[in-house]
Amino acid sequence: MEYAAKVLLLSAGMLAASAAIAQRERLPTECRQEIAAHCRAEGGDLRQCLRTALPKLSDRCRSEISQRAAARAPAPKGVREYAYGADPKQNLDLVVPAGATKAPLLIFIHGGGWSIGDKRGSTALKAEHFIRQGWAFASLNYRLVPSATVEQQAADIATALAWLRRNAAAHGLDPDRIVLMGHSAGAHLAAMVGTDPAYVTAAGVPMQAVQGVVLLDGAGYDVPKQMAEPRNLVAGMYDAAFGRDPKRQQALSPTSHAASPNAARWLILPVARRTDSTAQSNLLAAALNAAGAHASVVPVPGESHGSLNKGLGEEGDFATEEVDRFLESSQ
């Protein structure tokens, strides 16, 4: 297979998280050329090159990848989309149980290395499951690196929280029973908002409104430590998101903000076979527990980074059952 064809198949499959896109819908020529040029310059393994290419692609190319992923993702039943800010990326999906007048709210924050991703990715199953449990379900978009900083992304999460609380009565939500859930980079952002009060304070949200946080296989809770890992396969994403200033890296590390006040309860679910995610999870939990919060780490067996997220909401799924127990105790 010629090099350009390999780039098309791997980039569509890995970056847009859907092999079907590679077969049915080609990325624009300019985008494929960008990826091919980057990977030729980098040399070595093409899959590894594509992991590091994302932050270096143009805004248009990353947008095309995210749009294709979103287009293939089914919308949750009964979903309604709302803008929580002026930027096109500042929007959210919301599904509320029928007849609810004051439903607790689960807010999902997608991953994508801080540089790609969409609120519709792998959320339909989650929404349907948690609606059955009596929870309203929101999924957020937020501005992406490099057009926005990680600080602005965390501020977007807090702004969305504020919008949902302001509009709680109109949508049948309880503004003071909110749980954040994030996957991968979204887990880092959820942890930032749940530990650093600066973000919710600026948005006018009391920290106690966030009653719980669920983290799905994040590994950036101590950013400098993770960036120093010799086997960090997405080092390029971390470089683009956090830069090389040690003070900024520390400021964007949830573990550094684990002193009170924090969200009161935490469920941290790393993939069991990922040593970096498990180690980072244990460090964050230890810091939170030392500060008076209640944080549990439950390594998830038999899953990959992607399958943990995609399978959440399935009947009999290990991680889903852990989240259900956590949410039941949060009501």
Structure description:
This protein has 331 residues and is an alpha/beta fold. The chain has two domains: 3-68, no CATH class; 76-330, Alpha/Beta hydrolase fold, catalytic domain (Rossmann fold, 3-Layer(aba) Sandwich). Helices cover 47% and strands 15% of the residues. It is built from 16 helices and eight strands. An eight-stranded mixed beta sheet has the order 1-2-4-3-5-6-7-8, with helices on both faces. α3 (29-42) crosses α5 (59-72). Mean pLDDT is 87; it is low at 1-24.
- Unreliable sequence segments: 1-24
CATH level 1 name of the largest domain: Alpha Beta
Q: Percent helix among the residues? A: 40-55%
Structural class: alpha/beta
CATH architecture of the largest domain: 3-Layer(aba) Sandwich
Mean pLDDT: 87
Widest beta sheet: strand line-up: 1-2-4-3-5-6-7-8
Total of domains: 2
Distance between the termini: 55 Å
The count of β-strands is: 8
Short description:
The protein has 331 residues and is α/β, with parallel strands linked by helices. It folds into two domains: 3-68, no CATH class; 76-330, 3-Layer(aba) Sandwich (Rossmann fold), CATH 3.40.50.
